[in-house]
Amino acid sequence: MWLKKFNQIVRCLLPIALVACSTVAEREAADGADVHLQLGVRYLNLNNLPAAKENLELALKSDSNSVPAHIALAFLYEKLNKYDDARSQYELSLNLDPENLSLLNNFGRFLCDRREFDRGMTLLVKASTDMLNETPWMAFTNAGRCQMAMGDKKNAQGYFEKALQVNPNYAPVLQEMQKLSYQNGDFKAAQEYLQRYLSVATQTPESLWLAIQTESALKNDMLVKEYTNLLLENFPYSNEAKQIKSTQRPQ
Fold this sequence. Notes:
Layout: H1 2-45, H2 49-62, H3 67-79, H4 83-96, H5 101-113, H6 117-129, H7 136-149, H8 153-166, H9 171-183, H10 187-198, H11 205-217, H12 221-234, H13 239-247
């Protein structure tokens, strides 16, 4: 009698034990995926691409449906100029989570860079106008860049201004407005955007190059010399520095 009762108890407890084991295994897999995802993103930011790739692939091995891991891997493939692989990762992510705002922004930018403007703008507009988007200025900026690539400066400026309305100190859009103002011949505005950019970000070869062109147009020779020296000293191997050197006469 007691043996029969014991077997009944075992039969009752066995499914519970299996569920518990399954839950633990799933939790461990999720934890492992999260750890490798964080490591992968960190290595990606440090530009250690082999380590980033290894960890992101391990994250996906633990959780093949991890959208953040797919997005990060897509961005890594972009850095490696493996655009077909990057597209595959973006498309897979979109199928898994079509409302993911970070994905819409990044994939939209990617498509615009590939000159697939219609689809790219569709994704960027969707991302920038979603009321749940906590960083709409990023999508607005990418939409503006997309419009610039299409040759539509007016619409580009509109998107850049929308980005500045929600985040007046967003360095990438300040640099874009500096560039656009210079192209429009509004050199004073370009100078003002440069100063705003410098108040929130460090110089880059492109920002220094734009500064040189802007101050040259305003005939501020001392500033032209100052920015030129900064470019040559801080970024001697940049394409912008090479352009400067190519115009200088040998001593």
